[in-house]
Amino acid sequence: MTHASSTQAIPATGEVPQHVAIIMDGNGRWARQRGLPRFAGHQRGVEAVRGMVRACTDRGVGFLTLFAFSSENWRRPADEVALLMQLFLAALTNEVRKLHRNGVRLRVIGDTARFDPKIQSLVASGERLTAGNKGLTLTIAANYGGRWDILQALARLCREQPGAANAGFSEQQLAPHLSMAYAPEPDLFIRTGGEQRVSNFLLWQLAYSELYFTDTLWPDFDAKALDTAFAWYRGRERRFGRTSEQLGDADGCSLAGPAAQAARSG
Ligand code: IPE
Ligand code: IPE
Ligand code: MG
Fold this sequence. Notes:
Layout: E1 19-23, H1 27-33, H2 38-58, E2 63-70, H3 78-101, E3 105-109, H4 117-130, E4 137-144, H5 146-160, H6 171-174, E5 188-191, E6 210-213, H7 223-234, H8 258-265
Parallel strand pairs: 1-2, 1-5, 2-4, 3-4, 5-6
Helix pairs in contact: 1-2, 2-3, 3-4
The protein binds 3-methylbut-3-enyl trihydrogen diphosphate (IPE) (2 copies) and magnesium ion.
């Protein structure tokens, strides 16, 4: 029984983060600043999602994961929850074919059983339709919570290997049961809207992600803002527990990019 940390496997990092995970926050404030109802902000938020899918595709990002609705968002006023559900339903109805034409693979993570059956069936058919696509993998986190994810993974592991608990579980045993087992862990986490918190997003998977916070509100977060985040990311030195000096030789792959490499050698 090993208890090695899963973060010992050091991902290669290039100029562009392979996996970008975003908390899309600030729709309500965007609307309020304009004297509009919160709903208008959410509508503009959907447009920003379209722009982000395009921008990530153009930049060669492999995985884009978007937090659309948290397990805590049910606490919002009933009319806002209903409007968010309508928007999700409309986006699934109108966008999936376009995503498919653009080679995007769609995945939805979260406890979708709580959604309207129409949404559940559109999710299932959208995932099926796009399953073979080789372009960007777009993951929508809906009724998602990081703690829920860890617990559902543990439940699945216990069902699969009853009795294994006595020996103690390893990270490597649990990881395949997490909702994002199909993706590498996020290289870059972005939260728009100014708050500096994780709000129960990918708790397990963010263990070694670079965390970027911006005051820009989600409806205003465009390709240019993404490039600013990527430039910041390229300047990070991803050490995964080691020292800067250790990164010096053979495996420069652990650095986020040329800026960090130049800074190190200079
Ligand atoms: C994020 O924007 C969208 C969702 C949580 C669905 P908010 O609605 O949280 O916007 P603010 O934080 O009130 O500005
Ligand atoms: C986080 O935003 C969830 C999503 C963006 C879907 P919130 O606006 O709900 O986060 P808190 O509650 O302010 O932390
Ligand atoms: Mg918010």
